[in-house]
Amino acid sequence: MILAMIIGMSLVTMIPRVIPAFVVDKLRFPNWLNRLLNAIPYAALGALIFPGIMNVIPDKPYVGLIGGIVAIILAYFGLHVIYVLVGSIVTVFLFTL
Amino acid sequence: MLSKAIEKTQPSPALAMIQKGLSKGFPIVIGYLPIAIAYGVLAKQAGMSNLDLTLMSVLVFAGASQFMAANMVIIGSGVIEIIIATFVLNFRHFVMSFSFMNRVREMELKWKAPLTLGLTDETFAVSSLHTEEAKKEKGALFYATLMFIAYSTWVIGSLLGGLLGDIIPEALGQSMGIALYAMFIGLLIPSVKKEWRIGCVAVIAMVSNFLFSQFLDQGWAIVLGTILGGSSGMILLKEEKR
């Protein structure tokens, strides 16, 4: 049963991922659609960050938010992504002590 | 003779792309490792064998849905129910894949098709902010490398979690839950600094995701939030230079 579940999950995950590779090759998109697709990465980042970040410590949504604000500040000052990661991990860690 | 000397001092394009993929993919490795271990631990608690839980990472490679599946196994959900929930939660990758494939049109299909299988939220985010590589010689190796190290970390971390249990202390493990969010923020902010309208697009996606999530599945809320945010970008980012 577990194996059937894994294979089923794999198919419903992989098929939607791979279809665009074959479709996009055959189509020329109008300008507005290209602009929409080019904005998708930024929109996706937004949707992935919020409200999910409030679940980092599920019963303390503010901890995730503070970690996020620290990340924004560090990234704003041009720090490498690795330091942004470390800074926000340390911040959240201090809040869980 | 001279041309040979020059060749020696310049690293081959393939090697340069692999190095760049390793460097840009490294933050994903840091973010994935604790989460993969936590998934392995949870899947073990759900009664899955080490083989099963690793196989799921090999074949599905989508963190949130694997956590959800393990939780659903614990509460006794049916297989069909779990598969449908997985489809809904992972459908956002369809939208992401469309966006990425449109950006890397120059690449050959023999590269593009396998690369889509390595698309997760994280590999998509990093790849999409480096679309210029697709036009360079051996550029596909850049994406392949960053996806490969992300994938390997995910698979190995899952197995470690299943084999060793919680090897990361709980407080640290919990704190590392912020890592991927911090990476998303770290990727987004430099673009926002260059063009403030990009920040508007992201905020519109955040707010719509939040509103939709009040009455829809998390999966559909993210898909709709992303499309709505993208549509706002269609208007806001008119003069974006390619």
Helix tally of chain A equals 4
Count of helical regions of chain B? 13
Number of strands of chain A: 0
Number of domains as seen in the coordinates of chain A: 2
Which spans of chain A of ≥5 residues are poorly predicted at pLDDT below 50?
Answer: none
User: How helical, in percent, are the residues of chain B?
Assistant: over 70%
What structural class should be given to the helix and strand makeup of chain B?
mainly alpha
Q: Which sequence of SSEs, written as H and E, runs from N to C of chain B?
A: HHHHHHHHHHHHH
Mean pLDDT level of chain B: 91
Shape of chain B: globular
Gap from first CA to last CA of chain B: 39 Å
Q: What Rg of chain A, in angstroms, do the CA atoms define?
A: 19 Å
Low-confidence stretches of chain B: none
**Beta strand count of chain B:** 0
**Computed structural class of chain A:** mainly alpha
Strand content of chain B: under 5%
What oligomeric state do these chains adopt? heterodimer
- Fraction in helix of chain A: over 70%
Q: What's the number of structural domains of chain B?
A: 2
- Rounded to an integer in angstroms, the radius of gyration calculated over CA atoms of chain B is 20 Å
Pfam family, one (chain B): AzlC
Transmembrane segments (chain B): 25-43, 140-165, 171-189, 196-213, 219-237
Family (chain B): Belongs to the AzlC family.
InterPro entries (chain B): Brnchd-chn_aa_trnsp_permease
Q: How would you portray this structure in words?
A:
The complex is a heterodimer of chains A (97) and B (242). Chain A has 97 residues and is mainly α. In chain A, 78% of the residues lie in helices and 0% in strands. Chain A has 4 helices and no strands. Chain A has helices at 2-26, 31-49, 61-76, 81-96. The model of chain A has no long low-confidence stretch (mean pLDDT 95). Chain B has helices at residues 2-9, 13-45, 50-59, 63-74, 79-90, 92-103, 109-117, 121-128, 139-164, 170-175, 179-194, 196-212, 218-236. Chain B has 2 domains: 12-177, no CATH class; 195-242, no CATH class. Chain B has 13 helices and no strands.
